[in-house]
Amino acid sequence: MSETFDRDWPLAELLDGARLAQAGGALAGLLGGDLAICDRAGHVLWGLLPPAARREPLIVELEPIGWLCGAGEAAALRNAAALLTQLLRTQLRFKMASSLHVQAMSEDFETLRLEHARLLDSEARYKALAEQLEKRVQAQVAQLEERQQMLYEAEKLASVGQLAAGVAHEVNNPLGFVRSNLSTFGHYLDVVAGLKGRLPEAAWAELDLDFIIDDGQDLLQECIKGLDRIARIVAELKSFSNVDRASEEYTDINECLRHAAGVIDGQLPPGVSLRLELLPLPPMVCLPGHLNQMFMNLLRNAVQAIVDAGRPGSIVVASEADEAGIRVRIHDDGVGMSDEQKSRAFEPFYTTRPVGAGAGLGLSSARNIVLAHSGRIELSSTANTGTTVSVFFPVAS
Question: Does pLDDT of 155 surpass 80?
Answer without folding.
Answer: no
